[in-house]
Amino acid sequence: MAYQRFSLFPDSPSFKDLFSARSLRYRWRNGDPLITTGIMAVCIVVWIVEAVLNLVWQGGLNAMLNAGMLMPATAVHKPWTFITSMFLHQPNSLWHILFNMLTLWCVGPVLERMMGHWSFLALYAVSGLAGGTGMMLWAVLSGASGWSTPVYGASGALFGLFAAILVVYRRIGLDIRSMMIWMLINFLMPVIMPNIAWQAHLGGFLFGGMFTWLLVSGLRVLRGKSLLRRTLIYGTVMVIVIIAIDLLCNAVNPVNMALF
């Protein structure tokens, strides 16, 4: 009689098979939420690095946060922070990373399967960038304190996904009551917990909703084009608009004005 090695999950694929190129290609073609999983993996790995640095090297943690977080006063001079800030979370709080990743896993796979990998990635990126733009607009409206407010986290992008769910579900006539409850919880978080950048939430929500509306409706002349082509066209337009707003906001940046 032949004996096999004991496995706690005998019918599950091995770690090697799960991450093999063949497996990844199959799951990509099958529409599995690989982009969602990849974003979650990057956020979790970055948070682990932050948490370790918080325990053993405060100087390294401060350098990492200063280099990656977005601050309206310096955002245009450090444009990469519009992206890197989306992958940073509070190093001394499990709640921040846990809640954001749970939210992403609730809505990300649904949208990625509906929209396809590249359109979903474009939606996430546009929404995340717009979260930074929300902070830039708030800095203009609120004065000096707004320009010096640092922010980081995936919330701006996540609220863009919420808006996309609303647009898509309304378009195809699905019941969105359960999703509305989850969205309401997220919208109330700035009221319940301090130091949450609701401005980034609002920016991501508005731009994510607009981008999704353009994809599912949009200009009549582009409706017959493939989703990928529409994503490229509308995504490019949205990014240009976001950059233009950021530059206009930065024109009244008190840091710049103090230099002249």
Question: What would you say this structure looks like, in words?
Answer:
- The chain is mainly alpha-helical and 260 residues long.
- The termini are far apart.
- The mean pLDDT is 86.
- It contains 13 helices and no strands.
- It has a single domain (17-258), classed as Up-down Bundle (Rhomboid-like fold), CATH 1.20.1540.
- Overall structural domain count: 1
- Structural classification: mainly alpha
Specify the CATH architecture.
Answer: Up-down Bundle
CATH class value: Mainly Alpha
Q: Name the average pLDDT.
A: 86
CATH topology: Rhomboid-like fold
Overall, the morphology is: globular
In the CATH hierarchy, what is the superfamily? Rhomboid-like
How do the helices and strands follow one another from N- to C-terminus? HHHHHHHHHHHHH
Q: Identify the quaternary structure here.
A: single chain
Task: Tell me about the largest β-sheet.
Answer: none
Distance between the termini: 85 Å
- Helix proportion: over 70%
Number of strands: 0
Q: Which spans of ≥5 residues are poorly predicted at pLDDT below 50? A: none
Beta-strand proportion: under 5%
Helix count from the secondary structure assignment: 13
State Rg: 20 Å
Keywords: Hydrolase, Membrane, Transmembrane, Transmembrane helix
GO molecular function, one term: serine-type endopeptidase activity
Membrane topology: Multi-pass membrane protein
GO cellular component, one term: membrane
